[in-house]
Amino acid sequence: MTSHQPERRDLFETQAAPLYDEIVADGGIKADDPRIADDSPQRPGFDLLVELGLVQLDRSEEIWTPEDPTSVQSRVVTPLSQEGVQLLEESSRWAKSFGPLTHAWRRASFTQSRGPFTYLHGGEAIDAHLATLVAEAEEEMLTAQPQTGRSAATLARAAQRDTQMLERGTKMRTLYQHSARRSSITHKYVAAVTERGAEVRTLDEFFNRMIVIDRRVAVIPNGDQLSVAVVIREPAMVAYLVDVFANRERTMMAEIAAEQRAMTIRMLIEGHSDPVSAKRLGVSPRTYAGYVADLKSEYEAETRFQLGYTMGRQGISGTENTTD
Fold it and tell me: Are residues 69 and 139 in the same domain?
């Protein structure tokens, strides 16, 4: 076969293969059969079968007979597989060739380096630098993303960039503000990354944007100048930012635990079954049973009846301020 273009495969699937089935069923096809006449719509498919060697002419009887497709398949598929390997190797060489360009870009005029700090000016420069950092990530990426300032196009690019990173096995933890839950474009991004193992949570408090790669480099806005980003490679500063991120996560987890405890109490008081209560809390029945067991331990109760009685005597209703 001289060409393996997609249109040739389409011709094979739509015309040649069905005609081959007919020829096999009939035990062959006569050379003067109308189906393979020069003006027949099936003629292109027949010509392809001849070109591939799937039919051979028995000149003694002027009949085209079918051949075993297994040997033909190897002649077609093997060269394609070899070509694919060569393309992968070539793409790898191209990626390495771009390495010096990346270093040159980092020294370009739109960046300003001041010791361990690099200033990036403009969205294009920031996006390109982030793409490079994420592509180099090996262990973990931490991100804090306030809801404002991220367009649909920006999130689409980020989704492609971050999912590729996750598919390499790099971990990802992200914090959003609660307001992000009302954004449909953010939902699409979150769905894409969580499907590949990212952890995404939301906080009620305000915070600035921050990205930390492998706990060795961080990117933050330059104050109120959203068009300027600062790349930080100073170890102590990066460690401090990681600690800030971890403290926010701990605060959030404590708030979630308090909310889950209060809601579990309300579910018990209202008399809902475990499956219904678990569904309302968004957890499995086993996890919900664990919440109930924790409450029994806390109030030194052996049964749910004792638990309800004790909480009732103490005036516990599950509507108390969970932040106290």
Answer: no
Residue ending a domain, among 233, 266, 281, is 233
pLDDT tens digits for range 241-272: 998 888 887 777 676 777 778 888 888 888 88
Q: Are 209 and 221 in contact (CB under 8 A)?
A: yes
Q: How many structural domains does the chain have?
A: 3
Nearest to 162 by CA among 189, 183, 181: 189
**Whether residue 165 is found in the same domain as residue 222:** yes
Residue 265 domain boundaries:
252-313
Give residue 29's region: left, alpha or beta (phi > 0; psi -120 to 50). beta
Buried (b) or exposed (e) across 70-102, using 16+ Cβ within 10 A?
eeeeeeeeeeeeeeeeeeeeeeeeeeeeeeeee
Please state, in angstroms and rounded to a whole number, the distance separating the CA atoms of residues 296 and 216. 45
* Residue at 238 is within a domain: no
Q: In what order do the strands lie in the sheet with 63-66?
A: 29-30, 63-66, 55-58
In a domain, 31, yes or no: yes
Residue 182 sits at φ, ψ, to 5 deg, of: -95, 5
**195 and 187 in contact (C-beta within 8 Å)?**
no
Give tens-digit pLDDT for 141-156: 999 987 655 677 888 8
Ordered DSSP codes for 151-174: -HHHHHHHHHHHHHHHHTT-EEEE
Q: How far apart are CA 247 and CA 112, in angstroms?
A: 31
Residue entry with tokens 């939301």: 202
**Same domain (yes/no): 136, 229:** yes
Q: Where are the alpha helices (DSSP H) in 110-234?
A: 123-136, 152-167, 184-194
Q: What is the dihedral of CA 124, 125, 126, 127, to 10 degrees?
A: 50
